[in-house]
Amino acid sequence: MNFSGDLNLAFPELILAGAALVLLVWGAFSPKSTAALGAAAVVALLGAAVAAATGPLGRAFGGGLIADQAAVFAKVAIFVACAVAIPLGQRWFERRGVNNFEYPILIVLAALGMSVMASAGDLISLYIGVELHSLALYVMAAMYRDDAKASEAGLKYFVLGSLSSGLLLYGASLIYGFAGSTVFSDIAVAVQGQANTGVLFGLVFLICGLAFKVSAAPFHMWTPDVYEGAPTPVVAFFAAAPKLAAMVVFARALAEGFGGAVGQWQQVLIAIALISVAVGAFAGLAQKNLKRLWAYSSIANIGYAVLGLAAGDQQGVQAMLVFMVLYMVDVTGFFACLSALSRDGRSMESLDDMAGLIKERPGIALAMTAFSLSALGLPPFSGFWAKYYVFKAAIGAGLGPAAVIGLIGSVVAAFYYLRLIKVMWFDAAPGVTDAPPAEAKWTGIVLALFSFPVVLVALTWIDPLARAAAVAFGLKA
Hints:
With about 475 residues, the protein is mainly alpha-helical.
């Protein structure tokens, strides 16, 4: 083991760990320096992104940490999403008179956990990364202490998250017991294309635990309540970077540890994908609260991402990565717009609150329309290209019937996106909306531009990066 070389490969994680410690001490002695703390956290995240993009590639700590093209792709996207979430959340809390200097620190710690997840090369680092980022998310869900719903959301998330962590740890223990190693490459040698009964049981528990982290059905029960109760900018963060990190570690565990036994986990992923699409599409039809509605939307969209992964080849993993990056743009932008809207000092979160928004706040209404049409999958928005990649990969892997069912689910879900657009454009406004904060308004509008006209330009460099990342997982072409 080359300790110096290992530290070089872990340099992005070292930057975030050091930044979190410094920011924590700084915040403890100067808790009112929230703006400076937030700015320093953003600098640390962007610095970690640069370190990940320009750093060496290889394996460190006995294979427990992997720095490859897949890890680089995921880390840069995760760190940028985290950097965007910090000013959105800080300003939201400030407008409500809440001094939460811990917010940027928790995001840095969550980013550290997600970075470890993206580079996890064995079951131990996988579990450490999952728990580190999850503990930060539990606290963030309940940060708005004056709101009973936020406290309820944090408690529900913690209790159900603990259950999923138990499933994950039990599955990892079974795999270790029967395979004789926690390192994915060693597990792959032990499996040799056909997992025995003990390893198969462990794999099922591992998939269940990871499915909870990405809020895939039928392990989605926490998502609507947590989304509804947590602060809006926190939900914007929940729905973006942590989902990408969990999908990447999902892909790495299956591809590197069980890549030779694709047939044994492919059917499980197909079932999870289709159940998620169905639950997200049909349950979303009954929702009036926009945060709950987009919670079910996220469940359906995770189903599409899992369907790409279920293809079991490089094209499927590439489709999943492209889908998740484009989905992060849509969901972050939508919740940025939602966090900018209020009426008489009250947050606008219901469908009825959006009535006549095009006349009151045309810029935000246009941005929310773009995000809704993108989530629907209408061309040429980013959501269309995301689903195009997934369906193409699924059909190419012989999963045509599953792709057709996914397409039907997308058509069903179109109703609630179009209903939101109809309410914003054609219903009468119930009152005058408050002036939106600049940082949330412009974040939403800029991301809407990315979601619509800029997406074709962005795909010219996202596509080859995602392809290179997919190759790193070692699945068949």
